[in-house]
UniProtKB/TrEMBL annotation:
<dbReference type="InterPro" id="IPR050833">
    <property type="entry name" value="Poly_Biosynth_Transport"/>
</dbReference>
<feature type="transmembrane region" description="Helical">
    <location>
        <begin position="442"/>
        <end position="463"/>
    </location>
</feature>
<feature type="transmembrane region" description="Helical">
    <location>
        <begin position="291"/>
        <end position="309"/>
    </location>
</feature>
<feature type="transmembrane region" description="Helical">
    <location>
        <begin position="415"/>
        <end position="436"/>
    </location>
</feature>
<feature type="transmembrane region" description="Helical">
    <location>
        <begin position="256"/>
        <end position="279"/>
    </location>
</feature>
<keyword id="KW-0812">Transmembrane</keyword>
<feature type="transmembrane region" description="Helical">
    <location>
        <begin position="383"/>
        <end position="403"/>
    </location>
</feature>
<feature type="transmembrane region" description="Helical">
    <location>
        <begin position="149"/>
        <end position="170"/>
    </location>
</feature>
<protein>
    <submittedName>
        <fullName>O-antigen/teichoic acid export membrane protein</fullName>
    </submittedName>
</protein>
<feature type="transmembrane region" description="Helical">
    <location>
        <begin position="48"/>
        <end position="71"/>
    </location>
</feature>
<keyword id="KW-1133">Transmembrane helix</keyword>
<feature type="transmembrane region" description="Helical">
    <location>
        <begin position="83"/>
        <end position="106"/>
    </location>
</feature>
<feature type="transmembrane region" description="Helical">
    <location>
        <begin position="216"/>
        <end position="236"/>
    </location>
</feature>
<feature type="transmembrane region" description="Helical">
    <location>
        <begin position="12"/>
        <end position="36"/>
    </location>
</feature>
<feature type="transmembrane region" description="Helical">
    <location>
        <begin position="176"/>
        <end position="195"/>
    </location>
</feature>
<feature type="transmembrane region" description="Helical">
    <location>
        <begin position="118"/>
        <end position="140"/>
    </location>
</feature>
<comment type="similarity">
    <text>Belongs to the polysaccharide synthase family.</text>
</comment>
């Protein structure tokens, strides 16, 4: 088997298991999320949502970008993993103690005293996750996508059952917090089971020196990425009610379930594969464009379709008490269709070792979002959401400029790769909307939209002779046989 064939096989297997894993994960998240959302109130989700940015930033600090640094390192030894393990573990302990003491200040910021004990409990999650950084990096570097899928899905089942049980017995937001902690704990245990690497008691952090320049840029990038993603939760928590924060977090959760199926499938293989051909620009460009077409082929119909059925889906799944979140979700889904493209772009930038570009792109985007959101908050949540999406979609052009510098991918080539799928998906959703608008039964309307939109999109792909569509069918047929 040639290197090209071997790389194609690894990419196909990674996409298959990544797609299967993320599809199953979001299905489990959906099922458990429906039960919990029906049992809990909007205020419960708002309470947990206010703390999410602190946990995510602390998690980024304890991981410090070393997962990607290990994945991109040419030669790797036991001492490299060991240094990352001990650094992450010690950082996790230090950060937890700091945030434990700062919990009352966080509660004062939001004028919600009940956040103090909840924060101290919720922050246990990133402390536990600090024990998994090296193991997760080993699994990621060695493309153990199947093992990661089993670990993730098993953890979701265990934590989901825990969350639903606690919600049923009236534990309110404590159930959501416990669900997250149980998930992290289970995932850590499974990763230790699947990874053959084990730490030694010799604490030597000197191997980090060769990775620190790369990882520090990723650390700053990840922090600003979390700020970008959660800035609305912080501003809403400060200036709006817990119910409105809960509406946004519920919408954001469903939006994440939609686009993470795609980003998880792509991200699980994109960076290792692109890094492996980083020395051959033409080959890397060819592989990247195939990934770009596949991402657009899946992303636009999936997320535009989710936007189409949002009102009916929310009403059926978690009742009309969450109807305010449906309108927020509709706009977020449109933006997320482009976010998946930006995610693929950032993977290529990282694979080229240009984490500084990734860092500054994310920092500038974050600063722009913070400024615009602070300016827009007096005009209401719908205005903030629309500007948030417009900024994120427009930023794809900035990523495109850097892709052109790295692999000479022109704007015309990018548009040629993604526009057909975006335009076809838009036309299909519009046709479906007008064809089904006379239906009044919410169950019938949701079913009709899904079936008609899926049928139209597949029929157009088949009739147009899409290469990406044919390659996907051929691989699925091969797996079936």
């Amino acid at each position: 088997m040639s290197k090209e064939q071997s790389l194609k096989e690894k990419t196909a297997q990674g996409l298959f298991w990544g797609g299967f894993s993320n599809g199953a994960q979001q299905l489990l998240n959906l099922l458990f999320g429906i039960f919990i959302a029906r049992l809990l109130s909007r205020e419960d989700y708002g309470m947990v949502g206010m703390l999410s940015i602190f946990s995510l930033i602390a998690g980024s600090l304890q991981e410090s970008g070393f997962t990607a640094a290990l994945a991109n390192k040419k030669e790797i030894l036991h001492k490299d993993y060991n240094a990352v393990f001990w650094f992450s573990s010690l950082m996790g302990i230090g950060l937890y103690l700091l945030l434990f003491l700062c919990a009352p200040l966080i509660a004062d910021f939001y004028n919600t005293p009940a956040l103090t004990p909840l924060a101290r409990y919720s922050f246990l999650g990133f402390l536990i996750a600090s024990l998994n950084t090296a193991q997760s990096a080993y699994i990621f570097r060695n493309l153990m996508v199947k093992q990661k899928a089993i670990a993730t899905m098993s953890s979701l089942v265990i934590s989901g059952v825990t969350g639903v049980t606690m919600a049923f017995y009236g534990m309110a937001y404590w159930g959501i917090a416990t669900q997250s902690i149980v998930y992290i704990t289970s995932l850590t245990c499974f990763c230790w089971y699947f990874s053959p690497w084990r730490p030694s008691m010799q604490i030597n952090l000197r191997p980090l020196k060769g990775m620190i320049a790369f990882s520090c840029r990723l650390l700053i990038t990840n922090i600003f990425g979390h700020i970008n993603y959660n800035i609305l939760s912080v501003i809403l928590g400060k200036f709006y009610t817990e119910q409105e924060v809960g509406d946004f977090n519920q919408a954001n959760k469903w939006n994440y379930m939609g686009y993470s199926v795609i980003t998880g499938m792509i991200n699980g293989v994109a960076q290792p594969i692109l890094a492996s051909v980083a020395d051959d620009r033409e080959r890397q460009k060819r592989i990247f464009r195939k990934m770009l077409r596949f991402t657009a082929f899946v992303s636009f119909p999936t997320l535009f379709g989710l936007s189409l059925i949002t009102p009916e889906l929310i009403t059926i799944a978690i009742t009309s008490k969450w109807s305010a979140s449906a309108e927020i979700l509709r706009v977020l889904c449109i933006g997320s269709a482009f976010t998946t493209i930006s995610g693929l772009y950032s993977n290529l930038i990282i694979s080229k070792g240009k984490s500084n570009i990734f860092m500054w792109n994310t920092i500038v985007l974050g600063l722009i979002q913070i400024a615009v959101m602070l300016y827009c908050y007096p005009y209401g949540i719908p205005v903030m959401i629309k500007f948030y999406v417009i900024i994120n979609v427009s930023w794809l052009l900035v990523w495109q400029y850097f892709l052109w510098k790295e692999i000479r991918l022109s704007l015309f080539e990018m548009l040629k790769d993604i526009c057909p799928y975006a335009l076809i998906a838009t036309a299909v959703m519009l046709a479906t909307h007008y064809a089904t608008q006379s239906l009044t039964n919410v169950y019938l309307l949701c079913t009709a939209k899904i079936l008609l939109a899926a049928t139209l999109y597949i029929a157009i792909m088949w009739a147009s002779g899409s290469v990406t569509f044919k390659e996907s069918l051929q691989y699925l047929w091969k797996k079936k046989r």
